[in-house]
């Protein structure tokens, strides 16, 4: 095989399914299966936040209500999640993502089951770290699968479908966890999440049955005479990725974007209960409303942006609106005005959620989708992981839960400023 033939084979092997849309059908079962996977993962992530105010849970771990230590349980998960996303996601450029996802989900189930038996703070911390490592590559694998299965004009809508697992997971997860907690105790919140994994695994297997995204391996098979060539090609693509200032600006923006998300996810139930004086049962239903608004924002944002193709502008407006809504939360009084302001904030955040991945797809090469997605998602979650514990420290130091929300407002505005150089071009 000549050098020209090898280069041609490598190029063809890396062409995503989305670029041959006319020859291959667009399968919406793919993002729906990914949605189920993300939904399940989000249950696992945020369920523990609903337990922060539970006395029996605190006693089982040998704690009282310590905002810093409780916030650290969320932060430890997110730190390990971010590290895993950065360093393990590139495996998705070599091994079939479907197989990785299935194995990951099996591990999630085992770890959640073990959490139900945790009898100390240290054991719960270790299990949370392990769960973060196991879930780390999820978003980068989902990004790579969608990128290779859908054209650019459908990227936001396809991404939106699986990203809906985030707000729906929070909208259902918080009240469901509070219901199980109230009727069965904190241990059963983990047992229920573990059991839910089994049917979801079968649904993912069915939904991803047509997926076979292994670009680097395919290139190696087509270039058997020089197996190192696709590796060299991929290294060149990675060097270009690392030198791209646009890519790093998007990563910085995503840090602010996810800091907002994890700050809200980590402290929303406790903020409603302790910061605004809403009783536990009422908080269970009210805490889901902002995430329902987030869901609506994701749907509207994906549709409008796919039609206008202004990804950076959509992201900018999204986070700016989220910071404005959160500022209103600090000043309004009364249960329903607080929830309305919070819902507006999360709605605006939702507009940007599918677009930030579509923006990433515009700026980066499809040949290193998993690597780019892993760095992007990993750095965002690694930095966002600090939000719950920083908010916990600020709340503990000031004795005022509003100070934690003010921190999120400042970070969100900073993220908007960082994205300004990309608004006109993308």
Structural commentary:
InterPro entries: MFS, MFS_dom, MFS_Na/Anion_cotransporter, MFS_trans_sf. It is a multi-pass membrane protein. This is MFS transporter. It is found in: Membrane. The protein has 426 residues and is an all-alpha fold. The N terminus is likely disordered. The two termini are 40 Å apart. The protein is globular, with a radius of gyration of 21 Å. Helix 8 crosses helix 17 and helix 13 packs parallel to helix 18.
What's a concise summary of this model?
The chain has helices at 3-13, 29-46, 55-60, 67-88, 97-115, 121-135, 138-147, 155-163, 165-184, 186-207, 215-222, 229-243, 245-275, 280-286, 289-308, 311-331, 335-363, 369-384, 386-398, 402-419.
How many DSSP H or I helices? Answer: 20
Mean pLDDT rating: 78
What series of H and E elements makes up the topology? HHHHHHHHHHHHHHHHHHHH
Biggest sheet character: none
The radius of gyration over CA amounts to 21 Å
Q: Shape, please?
A: globular
Instruction: Please give the alpha-carbon distance between the first and last residues.
Output: 40 Å
Q: Multimeric state of these chains?
A: single chain
Low-confidence stretches: 1-22, 215-229
Could you say which structural class the secondary elements and strand pairing correspond to? Answer: mainly alpha
Based on DSSP secondary structure assignment, what is the total number of beta strands? 0
Helix percentage range: over 70%
β-strand amount: under 5%
